[in-house]
Amino acid sequence: MSKWILLFVILIAGWIGYNYYYNTLDSKTSFKGLPITIEHRKGDTKSGTDVFGNYWEKEMKHHYGYFDGIMGADGKELDFYMNPDAISDKIFRVTQLNVKTEEFDEYKIMLNFESIADAFTGYLQNYPPDWKGFGGIEEITLEDIK
After folding, report:
1. Tens of pLDDT along the chain (146 residues)?
2. How far apart are CA 1 and CA 23, in angstroms?
3. Which one-letter DSSP state was computed for residue 60?
4. Which stretches does DSSP call E strand in the chain?
5. Integer Cα distance of 126 and 120 in angstroms
6. What CA dihedral angle connects 40, 32, 96 and 98, to 10 degrees?
7. How many other CB atoms are found less than 10 A from the CB of residue 122?
8. Nearest in space to 94 (alpha carbons), one of 61, 41, 139
9. Which of 91, 70, 73 is closest to 140 using CA atoms?
10. CA angle at residue 52 from 51 to 55, to 5 degrees?
11. How far, in Å, CA of 1 to CA of 77, rounded?
């Protein structure tokens, strides 16, 4: 085998290994003993379609994911935003509304935010400026999540 083919194989294997680690292994972690999955990291672009059928995309200002095996009010695993630039024992729960009906939709948990104001700002940073889905915020305990 020529040295160029060997070098190419090593580079490809390294790239595959890095992407596997970054996108799979690194996304499974824990918060205060509860297993979590980080789906989108700070700086990633998240996209989707809103309830009105409009496509959107947004650069994530914080990590976003879910608590493994803990179901939220929407029947899916409970979502969270995590500030990767801070460490805090405080946990906040945002009540999110369905922007079409203005009724309760689901909770978003805010992790590693210093205060309720910090968590509120962090939540809104991940939504458009005219976001109508915010329904309130409160400090909770880890037991409230379980």
Report:
1. 566 665 454 555 554 544 444 444 468 999 999 999 999 999 999 999 988 899 999 999 999 999 999 999 999 999 999 999 999 999 999 999 999 999 999 999 999 999 999 999 999 999 999 999 999 999 999 999 98
2. 31
3. -
4. 28-31, 34-40, 45-49, 55-59, 63-71, 77-82, 91-97, 104-111, 134-140
5. 11
6. 60
7. 22
8. 139
9. 91
10. 90
11. 49
What is d(CA 135, CA 68) in angstroms, rounded to the nearest whole number?
A: 25
Question: Chain-centre distance of CA 89, in angstroms?
Answer: 18
| Residues 80 and 140: beta-carbon distance below 8 Å | no
Residue found by looking up tokens 């989108």 in the block: 40
Quote the CA–CA distance of 32 and 89 in Å, as a whole number: 9
Sequence-distant (≥ 6) Cβ neighbours of residue 8 within 8 angstroms: none
Site of tokens 């805090």: 88
